[in-house]
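Q: Okay, next protein. This is ESAT-6-like protein from Mycetocola lacteus. I've checked the sequence twice, so it should be correct. Can you predict the 3D structure?
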Amino acid sequence: MELTSTPEKLREMSHTFTAQARALTGELATLDRAITELSQSWQGEAQVAALAMYNRVRAQLQAQVASLTHAAAALDHLAGAYARVDAAGAKLIPHEG
């Protein structure tokens, strides 16, 4: 793998992760609206159990969003580091041609 292509590949991965996080966030908003409508018809223990299950699933999805967002930021940081190393290397190694 060429060093110069690494930053671009890392940034592409970062953009993919960011898009996935946005999509999951949108899905969470849709689920929130649906659960609000559905839960109005639930009663007693069924309502408590269903909301508890939903809250567990929602927490898992929120954790995925956080992980994707964190990974995207780390990839952006790594891409910047690779670009700086590449630029420094270009200054140190004379190019023939």
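A: Here is a summary of the prediction. The longest helix spans residues 44-92. Helices lie at 6-39, 44-92.
Q: Noted. On to the next one.
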